[in-house]
Specification:
Length: 151
């Protein structure tokens, strides 16, 4: 799944437009990145934890030349999945379903003081014309091979 597919899934699951879903996904990613950059841990219960880890300086080898090189210390992002996420992936727990859409609200009843207008007659739906069948195709004649040219 790529980002555009994720945006479509969020839009469908939350019953919002794709533009709103894209802004929500972008805001979520930006928030997680900024907090992890500060050194904060971001925990989403049931999903997992994003955090920053320090990687020590070390010596490495250049695979082309075999020379020993020094790799500097750095900070890297890390993700640790939560138990619910692990259970869903392993098949121990069912995958969560998208939230159900709320039933549309019914319009309030109109006051009885108004006179009811007679219902207009609805036009009877026209019957669809029967579909015409395509004429049967004749089998194509076998093509004759042209005789080879003599030189």
């Amino acid at each position: 799944m790529n980002k555009s597919q994720l945006v479509e899934a969020v839009a469908a699951g939350a019953d919002i437009s794709k533009a709103d879903a894209a802004r929500a996904v972008d805001a979520l990613i930006a928030s997680i990145q900024s907090e992890v950059k500060k050194g904060q841990r971001v925990t989403l219960p049931g999903f997992g934890t994003f955090e920053r880890r320090a990687r020590r300086a070390r010596t490495g080898r250049n695979p082309r030349t075999g020379a020993t090189i020094r790799v500097a210390a750095t900070k890297v992002p890390a993700f640790r999945p939560g138990q619910t996420f692990k259970d869903v992936v392993s098949g121990k727990a069912p995958a969560p379903s998208a939230p159900k859409k709320a039933a549309p609200k019914k319009a309030a009843a109109k006051p009885a003081a108004r006179k009811a207008k007679p219902a207009a007659k609805k036009a009877a739906p026209k019957k669809a014309a029967p579909k015409k069948k395509a004429p049967a195709r004749k089998p194509a004649a076998a093509k004759k091979k042209a005789p080879a040219r003599k030189r």
